[in-house]
Design goal:
heterodimer; A: mainly alpha; 2 domains; B: mainly alpha; elongated
Chain lengths: 223, 251
């Protein structure tokens, strides 16, 4: 892969290359997203810019670390969802991290639980999950579910399907399954077992309630 | 339960249904509590899976950052490492200087230092957008072809456009019109545009050197670039080293 030396960070993808890869989807998109995040992690200019912004705007180094990670995770999500329209990759990533910090600070200042764009988009008249469970606590619950209700193979399959938007034939190819139908059947089995396991939790009803605001929302994998 | 809708949960959540199918599905969800529960379960599961994906990404990020620090790629908090490198570079320079004194000393003139640390901005091509006005596009083309004099009027047409202002500064720089380059880069640096500030400051620094204006403004800018450890920190430190050099005092 060509290194783009002209950029402030040594990125393996040009803006056009990245746009083309994320639009293509599948393994090309995955490879591109990983490469971009890895290159940004190794770019001192990017790191310095984020740290300077957070520190200059009332944050601590620990918060800067958090913004750096959360911002890059958000970047991967936006790339997956087709929200990158081209243009300088570092500038796009820096803007995301800045927004992450501003949201975090606002949240802290106003003592709100969550004010990011996803929640505000879907709150409607329903109770928000944030009123039921703080975001961090919620992540801890999900980590527990991941540990107890999903084996590695099922998690991998579901991530490929639900998050990365792979088609079943590609999933079968990558996971060494016979064909697309085998992948579909395995996915259904994994879902069924995982849901059955979640239903046995004491907090199952709360968890179920907490997702109802998502009903209007669909994911698109950047299609 | 409306069984025929069961299989549509994933296509619905993946945004694969057309408008008509989506409307029908939503209606079915509203009317069938069991189906609604299944949709909620699926959404919950997806959120869990997303969390798993994010956790993996978080651990990758930490690993990549740590790799970068180990290989010395990351510069944050790594001043000591940078110092060692500069010290090594300085040692080499000193040895060479001692042996070919007469060839080296002239290299410490302001012009030579600026030329030594100059690097062309290869991003310039990436700055162009399809929405640029024809005049601006033409100005960039002239710049590309080395027709800096021809590029200037085009860039001057857009005094409020940072991209054009940047092109203008570079054109003056290429024409060795450092007085105007300084004025232009000063304005651009003052605009605090994330995209251009550091670049403008870097070329402003070089323009000052070429123009032999190494007074307080130059020193302040040089120190700022070093303290802020931005993209051009390596060049700024190199320049400072050269300026403070013993050999320079022999000029």
């Amino acid at each position: 892969m060509r290194i783009v030396k002209s950029s402030k960070c040594k990125l393996r993808y040009t803006a056009d290359g990245l746009l083309s890869a994320v639009t293509s989807g599948g393994s090309m998109r995955r490879k591109a997203i990983h490469a971009v995040i890895e290159d940004l992690c190794k770019c001192s200019y990017f790191e310095n810019t984020i740290f300077r912004f957070v520190l200059d705007n009332g944050g601590t180094r620990t918060q800067a670390e958090e913004v750096f990670e959360d911002g890059l995770i958000k970047l991967s999500e936006l790339l997956r969802k087709g929200q990158y329209q081209g243009g300088k990759i570092e500038a796009f990533a820096i803007q995301i991290c800045k927004n992450t910090w501003l949201n975090m600070r606002r949240k802290k200042d106003e003592q709100l639980h969550l004010t990011d764009d996803i929640s505000t988009m879907d709150q409607a008249d329903h109770e928000t999950p944030e009123s039921l469970m703080a975001a961090k606590e919620r992540r801890a619950v999900f980590r527990d579910i991941l540990q107890n209700c999903l084996d590695e193979a099922c998690l991998k399959l579901m991530q490929m399907k639900f998050i990365e938007g792979f088609r079943h034939n590609k999933i079968a190819e990558e996971l060494g399954l016979a064909n697309a139908n085998s992948s579909k059947e395995k996915l259904n089995r994994c879902k069924k077992n995982a849901i059955k396991c979640i239903m046995q939790r004491d907090d199952y009803q709360d968890l179920l309630k907490s997702v109802d605001f998502h009903l209007k929302k669909t994911t698109t994998h950047g299609k | 339960m409306a069984n025929n809708y069961n299989e549509k949960i994933d296509p619905f959540l993946d945004g694969e249904l057309n408008e008509e199918e989506k409307a029908a599905f939503k209606k079915a969800v509203e009317q069938d509590p069991e189906l609604e529960k299944e949709v909620r379960q699926n959404l919950l599961l997806r959120e869990v899976v997303e969390t798993g994906y994010q956790e993996k990404m978080r651990s990758d990020i930490r690993r990549w950052k740590s790799e970068a620090k180990q290989t010395g790629t990351a510069k944050v908090g790594n001043i000591r490492k940078l110092g060692y490198r500069l010290a090594a570079a300085a040692s080499v320079v000193i040895i060479l200087t001692a042996s070919i004194f007469t060839l080296i000393v002239p290299q410490y003139s302001n012009d030579r230092i600026a030329a030594r640390y100059y690097e062309p901005d290869n991003d310039l091509g990436m700055l162009r957008g399809n929405n640029d006005a024809d005049i601006l596009r033409q100005a960039f083309e002239n710049y590309d072809q080395g027709n800096y004099n021809g590029a200037i009027p085009g860039f001057q047409r857009y005094p409020n456009n940072d991209k054009a202002l940047y092109g203008l500064g570079l054109s003056y720089y290429q024409m060795e019109d450092y007085k105007n380059a300084i004025e232009t880069f000063k304005i651009l640096a003052g605009r605090n545009n994330l995209e251009y500030t550091e670049k403008a400051e870097f070329y402003l620094l070089l323009s000052y050197l070429h123009a032999d204006q190494t007074g307080p403004e130059f020193q302040e800018l040089l120190n700022k670039m070093i303290e802020e450890e931005g993209y051009y920190v390596g060049q700024a430190e190199g320049i400072k080293k050269k300026l403070d050099s013993f050999w320079r005092s022999l000029r």
